Amino acid sequence: MSQSSQGVGAPSFRAEQRGALLIVTLDRQARRNALDDSAILEIEAIFSSIPDSVRCAVLHGEGANFSAGLDLSELTERDVVQGIAHSMMWHRAFETIQFGKVPVVAVMRGAVIGGGLELACATHVRVAEKSAYYALPEGQRGIYVGGGASVRLPPLIGVSRMMEMMLTGRVYNADEGQSLGLSHYVVDDGAGLARGIELAEKIAGNAPMTNFALVHALPRIAGADPATGFLAEALMAAAAQGSDEAKKRLRDFLEKRAPKVVAS
């Protein structure tokens, strides 16, 4: 399957199925892959309609940048009600990634700033090339984040660090971003997509119920009170272990047909 999403005007994204993977490419290079309203609606459309045969997705930006954030030409004058609705459109679109059908691997290079960082934070595994850099310049532009950063970024780097980024306009490079938790891997420039696909293939090989638990249950369990979290974990563990695929995988391990975990 190869398709372009249907936004207003020229499509901003391409979605190509390769076996069990969906490769989603943001291509607005003339705008440093900045996100306009049409692009946000395309994100919602793509990640809301992933084919049943897809087990993992890879999201990356064409060219030198992952995404330079909100396309500032979108900053039209809105009243408060319109502004709330606009922000909630971004929330709705990014939720189709964070709590969507499959895990999503982001491959980041160049600018990962503002709304681009918010987009990356909605994914589940993040690979950064050495060229990647991170910032939240909204504080210097007299605005505030509106794509979910207040919710998704503090669990990764802490409230204090996000506050400092916005107050001072600080920019973090790829290695600093990994140490903070913005990425899980740092690779050489040009190697990100291959590494992202490699990781996505591993993820696609997991039992679907396990991936569902990690995408949908784990974040909610972590945010729940302990008593609720323990109950939800027990229910999720029972559901996963009770599946036919889990029983087969456990038998394969016990009968030495499955590889053991070793240091890489």
Give a verbal description of the structure.
The structure is a single chain. By secondary structure, this protein is an alpha/beta fold. The protein folds into two domains: 2-204, 2-enoyl-CoA Hydratase, Chain A, domain 1 (Alpha-Beta Complex); 208-254, Lyase 2-enoyl-coa Hydratase, Chain  A, domain 2 (Orthogonal Bundle), CATH 1.10.12. The protein contains eleven helices and ten strands. The strands form two sheets. It has a seven-stranded mixed β-sheet, with helices on both faces. A three-stranded mixed β-sheet has the order 6-8-9. It is globular and about 65 Å long.
CATH class of the largest domain: Alpha Beta
Order of H and E elements? EEEHEHEEHEEHHHEHEHHHH
Q: What Rg, in angstroms, do the CA atoms define? A: 19 Å
Tally of DSSP helical segments: 11
E-strand count:
10
The largest β sheet comes out as: 7 strands, mixed
Query: What's the CATH architecture name of the largest domain?
Result: Alpha-Beta Complex
> What gap, in angstroms, lies between the N and C termini?
34 Å
Which oligomerization state do the chains in this entry correspond to? single chain
Question: Strand order, biggest sheet?
Answer: 1-2-3-4-5-7-10
What would the CATH topology of the largest domain be?
2-enoyl-CoA Hydratase, Chain A, domain 1
Q: What's the average pLDDT?
A: 92
The name of the CATH superfamily of the largest domain reads 2-enoyl-CoA Hydratase, Chain A, domain 1
Shape: globular
Parts with pLDDT < 50 across at least 5 consecutive residues: none
Strand content: 15-25%
Class computed from helices, strands and strand pairing:
alpha/beta
**Structural domain tally:** 2
The helicity comes to 40-55%
